């Protein structure tokens, strides 16, 4: 890139709601949402696994939809409602998904867990009583090398039951 081109890429102001709080800051035009969250805002839950949107470790929820933050430009967050795994917990405790993941032993190394939680959260936000097949489809973009998925599916089912009974945080 030539020097003149670099100078023309001025920072962009973005304003969005992050985990219930208003955020306004400048981002670089080519900056990913993942970089913004991790490096500028210190939210380390979303991970960079592949950098190509194939592993799901970077999954966040934007306007109630699970998205790969490694593929999304930070500027695209402008005007959006963003939820990261750090925003799941409430002052009264863990979110039912987090509780169910622990109880069902759906975590081992933990690297993929934040992305799994966010994909499951987006699913339950739009469909509080999903079938096992719907859970599998919602988690298709999330890879786990440790658990074999059975515990993860059971955890999402358990959380859905809790939430439908009104036990959500």
Characterization of the model:
The protein is an alpha+beta fold and 169 residues long. The protein folds into two domains: 73 residues, Beta-grasp domain (Ubiquitin-like (UB roll), Roll), CATH 3.10.20.30; 69 residues, [2Fe-2S]-binding domain (DNA polymerase, domain 1, Orthogonal Bundle), CATH 1.10.150. The chain contains six helices and five strands; from the N terminus they run H-E-E-H-E-E-E-H-H-H-H. Strands 2-1-5-3-4 form a five-stranded mixed sheet, covered by helices on one side. The radius of gyration is 17 Å and the shape is globular. 40% of the residues are buried. The model has no long low-confidence stretch (mean pLDDT 94).
Q: Helical residue percent?
A: 25-40%
Our estimate of the beta-strand percent is 5-15%
**Overall body shape:** globular
What is the alpha-carbon Rg in Å?
Answer: 17 Å
**CATH fold node name of the largest domain:** Ubiquitin-like (UB roll)
The end-to-end distance, rounded to whole angstroms, is 49 Å
Low-confidence parts lasting 5 or more residues at pLDDT below 50?
none
Number of helices: 6
Q: What pattern of helices and strands is seen along the backbone? A: HEEHEEEHHHH
Global mean pLDDT:
94
Structural category: alpha+beta
Tell me what the CATH architecture of the largest domain is: Roll
* Largest sheet data: 5 strands, mixed
Oligomer: single chain
How are strands sequenced across the largest beta sheet?
A: 2-1-5-3-4
């Amino acid at each position: 890139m030539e020097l003149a081109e670099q100078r023309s890429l001025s920072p962009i102001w973005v304003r969005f709601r992050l985990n219930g709080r208003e955020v306004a800051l400048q981002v670089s035009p080519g900056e990913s949402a993942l970089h913004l969250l991790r490096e500028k805002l210190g939210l380390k839950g979303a991970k960079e696994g592949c950098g190509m949107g194939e592993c799901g470790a970077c999954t966040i929820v934007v306007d109630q939809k699970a998205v790969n933050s490694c593929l999304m430009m930070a500027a695209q967050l402008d005007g959006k409602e963003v939820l990261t795994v750090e925003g799941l917990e409430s002052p009264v405790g863990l979110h039912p998904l987090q509780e169910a993941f622990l109880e069902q032993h759906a975590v081992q190394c933990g690297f993929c867990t934040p992305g799994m939680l966010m994909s499951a959260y987006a699913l339950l936000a739009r469909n509080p009583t999903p079938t096992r097949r719907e859970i599998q489809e919602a988690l298709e973009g999330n890879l786990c090398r440790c658990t074999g998925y059975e515990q993860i599916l059971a955890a999402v089912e358990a959380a859905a039951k809790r939430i439908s009974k009104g036990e959500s945080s």
